[in-house]
Amino acid sequence: MGVIGVGWWGTVGHLEPLSKDEKAEVVAVYSRSEEKARERAEKYGVARYYADYRRMIDECDLDGVSIATTPNVHYEQARYALEHGVNVLMEKPFVLHAAEAQHLASLARERGLLLSVCYPWCFHPWAVEGRQAIRAGKLGCILLVNRLFSQRVYDLYRGDVTDMFSGRAVDYPLPNATSYSDPAVVGGGEGHTQATHAIGELLYLTGLAPASVFAYMNSLDVGLDVVDAIVVRFEGGALGTFSANGLVPKNVGAYSAQVLGDRGIFSIDSTRSAGQIWLEGEKPRELERPAHVNTVALVPQNFLRAIRGEEALHVETEVAVNVVKILDAAYRSAASGQEIRVS
């Protein structure tokens, strides 16, 4: 494995769990900063470090790469890896434009390679159980899906990374100020950094594909969207609402999901740590609270085992592509005030 991008999340969400995985050998890391790449390589016992990801891919015998750089370079880095026969796990947001997502999916399909996106919540036991019930048709015809994702990231959109990460260890990696505040780097705000989780999780549960999108976005006093409301009409007629709010009080959050069919309801309220499946003619069944699950580590672990042929790829390429289609359309809708059809 190689890790492309070893800043905050590239280190915490990829390099660290991969370095602890007995089935993984991290042979190289990349950073735009050669000093940072060298420091990470030394700390995690990685033999090679690069300030040129192309050289890393060309010179190392890689089975796969985790790409955890800023969103503006995801497409070109994933494309290069796929064109050179390397499986790709991409940090969210997958890419910024639908055409890019579709091109990467085509490359992976043509070359028989794995391509996935990082959505840790999809690995939670409740999500896995809900997907099994929904995909088996237990809820009947899906009519409506709702997802709320709300946590304070407003400060990051303003370029302030210190407040959100206060109290961390001295050597804890921090993102660059521009990684979340510069539209040229991050693309959008709440949509690309937060709503992407909400949409990805519901598509993972249901397998729905978008037909059209309408969105409102509020940027408050920053140059990126902070509060988003996105409505999706899916193929087959189901409707969906996705709400994301990046300005809530510190240490406060709200997370909920519902999938409503004509024969049952699947519901999760993460704020209260409660989940439920309620099927027609039955009493509602409370989902059992699992012991702590490190869903962050499960993302690269599954990708590695999928490469080895030991597990199925947990989050399919189709989910990654359809999330980008929705968000691409949502930003265009918010700018134009029009419903956007998804091709």
Give me a quick take on this structure:
This protein has 343 residues and is α/β, with parallel strands linked by helices.
Uncertain runs: none
The overall strand count is 15
Q: Considering DSSP H and I runs of 4 or more, what fraction of the residues is helical? A: 25-40%
For the termini, the CA-CA separation is 35 Å
Strand percent estimate: 15-25%
Keyphrases for this structure?
37% helix; single chain; alpha/beta; 343 residues; globular; 2 domains
Structural summary, described in words:
The protein is of the alpha/beta class and 343 residues long. It folds into two domains: 2-120, NAD(P)-binding Rossmann-like Domain (Rossmann fold, 3-Layer(aba) Sandwich); 122-290 and 315-341, Dihydrodipicolinate Reductase, domain 2. The protein contains twelve helices and 15 strands. The strands form two sheets. Strands 14-13-12-11-7-10-9-8-15 form a nine-stranded mixed β-sheet, with helices on one face. Strand 13 (274-279) and strand 14 (285-286) form a beta hairpin. The longest helix is centred in the C-terminal third of the chain and has 20 residues, at 317-336. The two termini are 35 Å apart. The mean pLDDT is 95.
